């Protein structure tokens, strides 16, 4: 029992340290540098340690956090102190908890112990992720309410409506993938994408559920409340929306949860649609290339390759979201709602129906 | 350390239900009354789930599924009514909505 | 002994289908109605004949039974919807379908130009359906269904030309008077259920007869009470004193209806029912005596009234009442087979006479008053010939049908199991009067000079063949019907009674009475037509009384109808506005006055309602958790 | 579930439930409700009802209560000056609720403690629930969808601003 618990804790810690925080930090850095490139400027480059600015990494990952943490934590007068303090925590924690069921690798063989590289194996894994995602709305709502500020309140209301609306499309999009994989466990889903179609094409989810991918990606961006869906915080209208009245570490937590959600969406997209930790043609015993070529690879190396693949995919989709953010303009509120309810929702429903029909017909045929 | 007896769950459920019922009866704010109703429903859900476990039948959980659906529908309609009420009466207090007509 | 079959139902289903056809299709397809109306009767007749062959082929007392389904199960009471054909119901079924077919054919011609042609046949088929249910029923409840069904059809057909209020009133009268009888019938059924727990005729006969004999109800043996109550039903349906008053008025309906329902079939239902339940009466001699006296009184009284009637159909109507009295008398003196025999022969010759009268009325352009007829034999030869046969048959001239059946009843009065010779003398008197008024009718209609207007005379014509053919068939039956072995057949059901045939002296006496009556009529209405007027003057008051039918209707109006109307007026204009409306208004008043108190309970606050809800739930939980 | 864990959870649940009913601020009440629901969801996991537990969070915590909060904010409800009805109502209702709980507890306590039966693996999973839902409870399930449709339409009609 002790060993098992240690392993679980280890897996969670590894996931957090190796992927979530790294990618998140990378995301912060990306955010600054990529936006600078897009806007034809230099970006963060001031802070340096012994003259090493490391392309702004020092600035974004060392100087900025320190500054955030050391700033005065201002709490406005006449606010609900308890809720005001709770809101950022409620925003960050569910997003982090959602990672508990994300598989970041297949298995790790240590001696005769086979470790499943997924912190928690739940038979309702995907629903668990949705549950956590739906909880993160509380941070927004409570922050908006507790700040005793009109901009905050408006942001909170917008946030709650937006997140509830897009959750539906998101969940419905996932139903299509569940029907295809016939499981709710994310690790099982990742493994199901391991075979090859016609002997050469990796059977990744994007091939089966392209529509679901588009819907999920869109809804995911909306869930993380980033441009073009950043109406809850839209700085040109509501100052900073629901976290207008936050400063210091609490503000940092909101910023972090923002990026954690980006990483979460990337992780889910990776697992659901892009093979998760799968490396094309790499199986437990080595590469089975098209044309019956075979290259044997040691088990440990396979695991490392898979971890690397997962990380790269994660980074790619994080980068993709940042590019989206810095490319598109913000929606109007009515456009946002119309897209969610009249665009994505019917599309997702149609996707479910078509998927179910096809699966049914194929089962009949088989 | 054995498993918790089913009756403990039932007792917890009864207490929660009573709290919810009291809330429905004494609070003035319609939204809080609604929340208390949800509390009652959840107390009953606990009973269903506990008995489903002790009887070894999933049917109890299926009922919970239905209860949730009904609760969601009820919340949607109920909150819409409250919004309409505030528009016309500018109150959310149960004792100020006693004319039994619109 | 009893064979179960599943095709008897078709006897009933065919006319029922006919009804549906007439109702839903008939209005747009008169040509089809002409075929379907009689056609379904022919089909039913064919099935009935098949049933008769089967029963005939069986040993004595055999029967066919067709159980459709279990109709009612209420505690120990269990009623099946089942049909049964034994010798008795076989005779009745053949009469109903056979005579019914002839009259349907006749109606095709008679009602040809009537706008309600399809409706008429719908009613007629429905009547046949109900009548067949009545005679085929294996239990008294199903019999009662048919009993009520024929009553309904009778009402509908009497008031067929309802645009004339007189007809509608006649129909209403028939229905209401029958209700009185039906009430008695129902009470009889209740008593039967109460004491025997069943309504199955066979079960009562074979298992519960001792109960009926020994049990007492209000100081009387139950059998007597039940017998009298059922007889009340029979007096209504079979037009006996005191409930006969509806039948003469029922002549308001189309003449084929009078022939079919109010002469040949429906009115014999009471006789049939009492024959069916002969075993009840056998253990209730007291009831039987009442039956005999009522029958004899009806036979004589109606005959006397018949003498003074001028409407040709009224004469026949009172004649029918009188003949029904004969049948009931036959039951009363214990010769039920003879009564059924008379039912059959009466169906022949009275059906014939009514149809003939219809032919006359048809020819006269709707005129029914005999004082405006006369000398018609030249214009209506076939009608005259057949009606002559009918008259001779009803008068009891041998060897025609009426002679045999009537003679058996009269002889039963003298020598039957429950003989009452004085009633035999009454019967002879009635027979004489019968011969007299029938002769009177015949002579006034067909002899002498025509008293009708020139226009009517100009249009006189013989009826079409669809009307005369049934007349001829019925005339043949009236001639030879007396040789049918009906009494023997019925005896296989009701049991034998050792009795000798009537002595020749009595046969001679009967013949003499019949001929005497006819001769007297001939003298009074052909040879010396001025005499009746003189008689009428000499017996002024008595003649007027007879002419006014003993003023029984007036008596009923004064004693029963008047008080009832007064009571209804009281209820409608005093009791209802005062007490009923008063109670309603009073309730409203009390509510209105006290509601200022009660309405405090209705705070409108949803939580107060929820609180009472919770308290109720609390009480419920407490109640359930007591143990 | 471990009795100690149960007792701790139960105590927290009751505390959260009391917050719902007693707190003056509707937002705190809503938070109490979420906490109750969340804790009950943990209880459900302990009772081998994972699917129900997750649904509880998604539907209740993720949607229903958010809806409550949304409306509270939309209407900008303030802390109530007087949160309950009259003292008589409070007294009667309170004692009735307590009596109800006492009655149920008494009747439950009289029963022999039924130990949990062994349940097969996959008890309470989406598969097990779905199988029942789409076979034995198919008609109610479809009717439920109708109910939701009606509720959606009703809510839209009711909450729509009068033109």
How many distinct domains of chain A? 1
Quaternary state of this entry equals: heterotetramer
- Kindly name the structural category of chain A: mainly alpha
Average pLDDT figure of chain A:
81
Distance between the termini of chain B: 58 Å
Q: Tell me, what's the shape of chain B?
A: elongated
List descriptors.
heterotetramer; B: 102 residues; mainly alpha; Helix Hairpins; 3 helices; C: 627 residues; two-stranded antiparallel ribbon; 5 strands
Structure in a nutshell:
The complex is a heterotetramer of chains A (366), B (102), C (627) and D (163). Chain A is mainly alpha-helical.
Fold and architecture overview:
The complex is a heterotetramer of chains A (366), B (102), C (627) and D (163). Chain A is mainly α and 366 residues long. Chain A has one domain (2-365). Chain A is 65% helix and 6% strand. In chain A, the strands form 3 sheets. A 3-stranded antiparallel β-sheet of chain A has the order 5-6-7, with no helix packed on it. A two-stranded antiparallel ribbon of chain A has the order 1-2. In chain A, strand 1 (107-110) and strand 2 form a beta hairpin. Chain A starts with a helix and ends with a helix. The mean pLDDT of chain A is 81. Chain B is 76% helix and 0% strand. In chain B, helix 1 packs antiparallel against helix 2. Chain B is elongated, with a radius of gyration of 17 Å. Chain B starts with 5 loop residues before the first helix and ends in a 13-residue tail after the last helix. The model of chain B has no long low-confidence stretch (mean pLDDT 84). Chain C has 627 residues and is mainly alpha-helical. Among the domains of chain C are: 284-493 and 501-547, no CATH class; 553-624, no CATH class. Helix content of chain C is 73%, strand content 4%. Chain C is built from 27 helices and 5 strands. Chain C has a 3-stranded mixed β-sheet. Helix content of chain D is 73%, strand content 0%. Chain D contains 6 helices and no strands. The longest helix of chain D is centred in the middle third of the chain and has 25 residues, at 50-74. At the B-D interface, helix 1, helix 2 and helix 3 of B face helix 1, helix 2, helix 3, helix 4 and helix 5 of D.
């Amino acid at each position: 029992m002790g060993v098992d618990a240690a392993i679980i804790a280890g897996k969670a810690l590894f996931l957090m340290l190796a992927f979530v925080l790294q990618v998140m930090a990378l995301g912060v850095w990306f955010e600054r540098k990529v936006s600078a490139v897009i806007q034809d400027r230099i970006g963060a480059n001031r802070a340096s340690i012994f003259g090493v600015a490391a392309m702004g990494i020092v600035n974004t990952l060392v100087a900025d956090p320190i500054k955030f943490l050391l700033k005065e934590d201002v709490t406005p007068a006449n606010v609900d102190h308890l809720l005001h303090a709770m809101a950022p925590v409620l925003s960050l924690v569910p997003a982090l908890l959602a990672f508990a069921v994300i598989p970041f690798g297949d298995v790790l063989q240590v001696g005769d112990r086979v470790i499943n590289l997924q912190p928690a194996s739940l038979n309702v894994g995907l629903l668990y992720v949705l549950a956590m995602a739906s909880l993160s709305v509380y941070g927004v709502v409570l922050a908006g309410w507790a700040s005793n500020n009109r901009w905050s309140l408006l942001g909170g209301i917008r946030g709650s409506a937006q997140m509830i609306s897009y959750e539906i499309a998101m969940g419905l999009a996932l139903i299509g993938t569940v029907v295809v994989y016939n499981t709710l466990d994310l690790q099982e889903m990742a493994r199901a994408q391991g075979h090859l179609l016609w002997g050469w094409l990796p059977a990744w989810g994007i091939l089966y559920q392209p529509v679901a991918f588009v819907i999920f990606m869109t809804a995911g961006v909306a869930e993380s409340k980033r441009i073009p869906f950043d109406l809850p915080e839209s700085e040109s209208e509501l100052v900073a929306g629901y976290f207008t009245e936050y400063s210091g570490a609490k503000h940092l937590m909101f910023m972090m949860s923002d990026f954690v959600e980006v990483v979460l969406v990337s992780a889910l997209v990776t697992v659901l649609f892009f093979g998760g930790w799968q490396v094309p043609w790499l199986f437990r015993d080595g590469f089975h290339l098209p044309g019956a070529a075979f290259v044997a690879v040691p088990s440990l190396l396979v695991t490392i390759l898979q971890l690397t693949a997962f990380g790269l995919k994660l980074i790619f989709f994080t980068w993709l979201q940042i590019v989206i953010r810095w490319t598109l303009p913000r929606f109007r509120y009515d456009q946002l709602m119309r897209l969610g309810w009249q665009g994505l929702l019917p599309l997702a429903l149609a996707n479910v129906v078509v998927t179910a029909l096809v699966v049914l017909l194929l089962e009949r045929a088989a | 350390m054995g498993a918790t007896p089913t009756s403990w769950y039932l007792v917890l459920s009864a207490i929660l239900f009573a709290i919810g019922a009291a809330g429905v009866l004494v609070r003035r704010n319609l939204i809080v009354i609604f929340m208390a109703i949800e509390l009652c429903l959840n107390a009953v859900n606990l009973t269903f789930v506990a008995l489903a476990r002790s009887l070894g039948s999933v049917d109890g959980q299926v009922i919970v599924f239905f209860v949730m659906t009904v609760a969601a529908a009820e919340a949607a309609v109920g909150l819409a009514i409250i919004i309409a009420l505030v528009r016309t009466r500018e109150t959310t207090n149960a004792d100020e909505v006693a004319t039994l007509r619109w | 002994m009893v064979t179960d079959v599943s095709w008897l139902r078709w006897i009933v289903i065919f006319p029922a289908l006919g009804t549906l056809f007439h109702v839903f299709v008939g209005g747009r397809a008169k040509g089809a109605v002409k075929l379907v109306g009689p056609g379904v009767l022919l089909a039913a007749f064919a099935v009935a004949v098949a049933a008769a062959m089967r029963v005939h082929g069986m040993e004595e007392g055999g029967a066919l039974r067709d159980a459709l389904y279990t109709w009612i199960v209420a505690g120990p009471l269990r009623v099946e919807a089942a049909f049964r054909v034994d010798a008795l119901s076989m005779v009745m079924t053949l009469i109903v379908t056979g005579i019914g077919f002839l009259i349907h054919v006749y109606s095709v011609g008679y009602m040809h130009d009537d706008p309600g042609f399809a409706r008429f046949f719908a009613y007629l088929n429905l009547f046949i359906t109900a009548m067949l249910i009545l005679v085929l029923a294996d239990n008294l409840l199903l019999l009662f269904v048919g009993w009520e069904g024929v009553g309904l059809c009778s009402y509908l057909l009497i008031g067929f030309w309802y645009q004339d209020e007189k007809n509608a009133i006649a129909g209403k009268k028939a229905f209401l008077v029958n209700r009185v009888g039906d009430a008695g019938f129902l009470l009889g059924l209740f008593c039967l259920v109460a004491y025997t727990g069943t309504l199955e005729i066979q079960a009562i006969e074979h298992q519960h007869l001792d109960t009926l004999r020994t049990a007492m109800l209000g100081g009387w043996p139950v059998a007597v009470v039940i017998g009298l109550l059922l007889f009340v039903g029979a007096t209504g349906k079979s037009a006996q004193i005191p409930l006969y008053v509806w039948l003469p008025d029922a002549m308001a309906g189309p003449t084929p209806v009078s022939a079919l329902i109010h002469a040949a079939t429906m009115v014999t239902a009471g006789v049939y029912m009492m024959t069916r339940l002969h075993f009840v009466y056998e253990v209730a001699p007291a009831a039987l005596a009442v039956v005999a006296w009522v029958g004899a009184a009806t036979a004589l009284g109606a005959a006397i009234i018949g003498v003074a009637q001028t409407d040709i159909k009224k004469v026949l109507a009172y004649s029918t009442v009188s003949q029904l009295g004969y049948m009931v008398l036959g039951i009363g003196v214990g010769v039920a087979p003879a009564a059924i025999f008379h039912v059959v022969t009466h169906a022949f010759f009275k059906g014939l006479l009514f149809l003939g009268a219809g032919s006359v009325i048809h020819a006269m352009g709707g005129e029914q008053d005999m004082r405006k007829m006369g000398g018609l034999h030249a214009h209506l030869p076939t009608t005259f010939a057949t009606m002559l046969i009918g008259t001779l048959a009803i008068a009891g001239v041998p060897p025609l049908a009426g002679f045999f059946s009537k003679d058996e009843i009269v002889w039963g009065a003298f020598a039957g199991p429950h003989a009452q010779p004085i009633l035999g003398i009454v019967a002879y008197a009635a027979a004489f009067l019968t011969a007299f008024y029938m002769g009177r009718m015949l002579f006034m209609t067909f002899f002498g000079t025509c008293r009708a207007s020139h226009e009517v005379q100009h249009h006189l014509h013989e009826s079409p063949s669809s009307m005369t053919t049934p007349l001829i068939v019925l005339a043949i039956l009236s001639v030879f019907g007396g040789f049918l072995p009906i009494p023997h057949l019925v005896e296989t059901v009701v049991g034998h009674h050792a009795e000798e045939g009537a002595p020749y002296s009595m046969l001679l006496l009967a013949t003499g009475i019949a001929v005497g009556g006819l001769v007297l009529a001939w003298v009074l209405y052909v040879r010396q037509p001025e005499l009746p007027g003189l008689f009428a003057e000499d017996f002024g008051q008595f003649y007027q009384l007879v002419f006014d039918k003993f003023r029984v209707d007036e008596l009923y109006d004064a004693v029963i109808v008047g008080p009832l109307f007064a009571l209804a007026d009281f209820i409608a204009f005093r009791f209802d506005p005062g007490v009923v409306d008063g109670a309603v208004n009073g309730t409203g008043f009390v509510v209105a006055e006290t509601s200022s108190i009660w309405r405090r309970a209705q705070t409108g606050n949803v939580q107060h309602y929820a609180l009472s809800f919770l308290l109720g739930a609390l009480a419920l939980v407490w109640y359930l958790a007591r143990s | 579930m471990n009795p100690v864990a149960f007792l701790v959870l139960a105590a927290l649940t009751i505390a959260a439930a009391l917050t719902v009913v007693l707190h003056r601020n509707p937002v705190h009440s809503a938070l109490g409700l979420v906490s109750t629901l969340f804790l009950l969801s943990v209880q459900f996991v302990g009772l081998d009802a994972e699917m129900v537990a997750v649904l509880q969070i998604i539907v209740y915590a993720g949607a229903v209560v958010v809806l409550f909060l949304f409306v509270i904010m939309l209407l900008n409800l303030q802390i109530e000056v007087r949160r309950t009805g009259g003292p008589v109502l409070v007294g009667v209702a309170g004692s009735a609720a307590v009596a109800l709980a006492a009655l149920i507890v008494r009747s439950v306590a009289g029963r022999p403690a039924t130990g949990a039966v062994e349940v097969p693996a996959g008890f309470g999973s989406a598969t097990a629930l779905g199988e029942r839902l789409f076979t034995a409870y198919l008609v109610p399930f479809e009717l439920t969808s109708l109910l939701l449709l009606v509720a959606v339409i009703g809510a839209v009609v009711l909450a729509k601003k009068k033109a």
